[in-house]
Amino acid sequence: MDFSKTRKAKRIVAGTLAVLLFCIFGGSISAAAAARELPIYCVEREGKPVSLTFDAAWGNEDTQLLIDILGKYNVKATFFVVGDWVRKYPESVRALHEAGHEVMNHSSTHKHFNQLSSEQIAEDVGACNDKIEALTGVRPILFRPPFGEYNDNVIKTLNGMGMYTIQWDVDSLDWKEIPASEITNRVTKRVKSGSIILFHNAAKHTPEALPGIIEWLIQNGYRPVKVSELIYRDNYTINHEGRQIPKGDKQL
């Protein structure tokens, strides 16, 4: 018997078996290892509620105009504000709160949170929370990461602070200064029940687009609500798309 050929055959079999075992089990292990902590992009809801959200980081030229437009339709929105913006425009923060909108956290100085430690994240978010609470009397429970950037550390740190990390599933791209008609088309083509829609204050054409968007939403049965009213506070899961779903929901 040629033992060298036998050993070679055994190595081939062993190698083939290893590949098969990796394909069968390794893939699932890799998938589990690759699973990420996710923020809330949208929410599984009946009744067609949606949330209009505005990020406020830089300018302030149209904040009162946005308040007036939203007030005309009796719509309440969620404004994610940066701590430096709060410091520069305290009167606008008070105006938003007094108009019934919720003022939530968009970080203190708009840093890249993926590059921060847990301690740095907690300090940054906490400082912005302090500024907002000092002006409104309400401590934020919602956080939107600057640049939409996050990783497992960001989400876990915010969870540990008792806060919900909020993204969006409908991006108006208003910051690109696209025409109002294009902003409107992007939103109305993509919105669905439970959507979180992203706008910005100080975006050139948002005030022009906003009335038509609100009217379209209402005419089509959508009900704008604040993000804190849209999300589930407990007993939920977040699927691979970032959709928040109540536990036990078969649509998961």
Any idea of the CATH class of the largest domain? Answer: Alpha Beta
> What do we call the CATH homologous superfamily of the largest domain?
Glycoside hydrolase/deacetylase
Overall structural domain count: 2
| Number of helical segments with 4 or more residues | 9
CATH topology of the largest domain: TIM Barrel
Overall geometric form: globular
Strand content: 15-25%
Low-confidence stretches: 1-33
User: How is the biggest beta sheet arranged?
Assistant: 6 strands, parallel
Nearest-angstrom radius of gyration? 23 Å
Q: What's the SSE pattern? A: HEEHEHHEHEHEEHEHEHEE
Q: Which percent range fits the helix content?
A: 40-55%
**Overall strand count:** 11
CATH architecture of the largest domain: Alpha-Beta Barrel
Distance between the termini: 59 Å
The averaged pLDDT comes out at 89
From the helix content, strand content and strand pairing, which structural class follows? alpha/beta
Detailed description of the structure:
It is a single chain. The chain has about 250 residues and is α/β, with parallel strands linked by helices. It has two domains: about 1-35; about 40-245, TIM Barrel, CATH 3.20.20. It has helices at about 5-35, 65-70, 85-90, 90-100, 120-135, 150-160, 180-190, 205-220, 225-230; strands at about 40-45, 50-55, 80, 100-105, 140-145, 165, 170, 195-200, 225, 235-240, 245. Strands 2, 3, 4, 7, 8 and 9 form a six-stranded parallel sheet that branches. Strand 5 (about 140-145), helix 6 (about 150-160) and strand 6 (about 165) form a beta-alpha-beta unit. The longest helix has about 30 residues, at about 5-35. Mean pLDDT is about 90; it is low at about 1-35.
